[in-house]
Structures are given as C-alpha cells and as structure tokens.
Amino acid sequence: MKYLLLPLLTVSCWACNQKPSYQKAADAQDAGREFIRASLDGDIEKARFYLLKDSTNLYMLDTTWKENTYDKLSTEERHEYRNAQIRPVKIENENDSVVNYVFTNSYKQKDTTVINIVKVRDEWLIDLKHIHRWNH
After folding, report:
1. CATH code at 116?
2. How do strand 123-133 and strand 98-105 relate by DSSP bridges?
3. Is 89 exposed, middle or buried (0-12, 13-18, 19+ CB in 10 A)?
4. CB 20 within 8 A of CB 45
5. Which range has the worst mean pLDDT, 13-27, 28-42, 57-71?
6. Are 101 and 91 in contact (CB under 8 A)?
7. In this structure, are residues 87 and 113 in contact, taking their beta carbons and an 8 Å threshold?
8. What is the CA radius of gyration of the chain?
9. Which residue of 9, 46, 90, 98 is 20 to 30 Å from 54, comparing CA positions?
10. How far is CA 88 from CA 32, 36, 43, 53, in A?
C-alpha cells in the first residue's frame, strides 16, 4: 500500500498544477461564442485565451471588465450570467479578417453588444477596442 502512495501523490500534484487547455477557435463565430461564454461565466483566463493580446485589450479585460464589472456583481447576478444563453443577433463579415459579432444574452436581453473578431496569423481573436452597444 505504501508503495502506491508516492505515485498517487505525484500524479495528484501534477494534475492539480495543470492549467486548463483551450482549443483555438475554428472560425470567428467560435471565437466570439467562447469569449462571450467565458465572460458570462467570469472565467477571465479563458476569456484572455481568446483575446487579441495587446496592451489596450489586456487592460480592458483585466481592469475595466473584471474589476469594474464582474467583481462588483452580486452572487445572484453572477449566477444569472452563468446560466444565461448567448443570443447572436447578427454576425457580419466586414472583410476576410474582421467580423462583427452582435449579441445579447437571455439574462440582459436589452443589452445588445458588438464585438470585433479579427484574424491574426490564422487565429481568430477578440479585439475589445471596438466594443460598443448596438441600437436596433
């Protein structure tokens, strides 16, 4: 029994130290969906994975979004966002490397948002610099 303890502890420690691995987005719609879901769930690490990593986007994600928005939500509001469904309104190609993803969610149905998804070196990523509300 004691001979099994060390290998089990080693495997357990290794498994606990592994960071979650995320799949690259297959297309712009996939990148948008994954980023929005991570945002609704409050999973900043997953949201960061699908983000175009420049200083402005990282600042917006870490400071503006997380500290000023998600961290200030009540437990009930966080629960509502985690249970919310993503509702795409319009997904529009601006050109071959920029897509506008217009969406709302089932919790805040009147809050319609547009995010830009850009293709950089064959990878679809979210560019928050152009995020805005959409008026029907």
Report:
1. 3.10.450
2. unpaired
3. middle
4. yes
5. 13-27
6. yes
7. no
8. 18
9. 90
10. 10, 10, 20, 24
Beta carbons within 10 angstroms of residue 127's beta carbon: 18
The answer to whether residue 8 sits within a structural domain is no
Domain span holding position 61: 25-133
Model pLDDT, residue 16: 52
CA distance 119 to 99: 9
Whether residue 80 lies inside any domain: the answer is: yes
pLDDT at 69: 78
Residue 7 maps to a domain: no
- The token duo for 117 is 């998804």
Number of domains comprising the chain: 1
Question: pLDDT of 46-58, one tens digit each?
Answer: 999 999 999 999 9
**What digits encode the pLDDT tens for the residues 62-87?**
887 776 678 888 999 999 999 999 99
Report if residue 46 sits inside a domain. yes
